[in-house]
């Protein structure tokens, strides 16, 4: 049976943070997408679901919007918008009537940055298996005479690629995200 993508935010049966058509729009504006362009629709769906499953394992700030019903870790509430400029000058921040939603992510949708991270990880997964340990991830080179072992500095199974981490870092627990403080 073919895999069917469900990217409905908050759904009990959601299995992806982004659907294939929206992912295609992302890749249409990106260079070096050969692995995506050459993949079948079924493999693209599998890559998006696998990327979502891996991203779903991260420790995110905030709380799931409906912890009892939604199948994925997003959408969430209580998550500060890392792109929000609270405005230090009088009249540009809270006191000017700025809405709650500007400083906080929408708790009913999947953020675009998470969709983008899902696409980026799916692209990597179409090119190589980054999800399973082989036992050799920590080693680049092994010698026999005079025993020469060179540790790997680039790849570890299960570890997200750095370009994916850059999308999500502000929203990870301990990831450097800032919570705006407002004087009462």
């Amino acid at each position: 049976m073919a895999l069917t993508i469900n990217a409905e935010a908050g759904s009990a049966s959601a299995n992806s943070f982004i659907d294939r058509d929206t992912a295609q729009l992302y890749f249409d504006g990106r260079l070096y997408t050969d692995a995506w362009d050459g993949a079948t629709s079924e493999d693209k769906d599998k890559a998006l679901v696998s990327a979502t499953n891996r991203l779903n394992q991260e420790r995110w700030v905030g709380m799931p919007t409906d912890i009892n019903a939604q199948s994925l870790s997003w959408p969430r509430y209580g998550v500060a918008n890392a792109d929000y400029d609270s405005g230090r000058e009088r009249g540009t921040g809270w006191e000017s009537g700025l809405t709650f939603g500007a400083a906080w992510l929408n708790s009913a949708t999947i953020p675009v940055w998470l969709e983008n991270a899902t696409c980026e990880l799916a692209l990597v997964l179409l090119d190589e298996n980054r999800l399973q340990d082989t036992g050799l991830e920590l080693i680049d080179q092994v010698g026999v005479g005079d025993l020469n072992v060179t540790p790997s500095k680039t790849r570890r199974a299960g570890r997200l690629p750095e370009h994916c981490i850059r999308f999500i870092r502000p929203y990870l627990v301990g990831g450097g995200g800032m919570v705006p403080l407002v004087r009462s």
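The radius of gyration is 20 Å. The CA atoms of residues 77 and 107 lie 5 Å apart.
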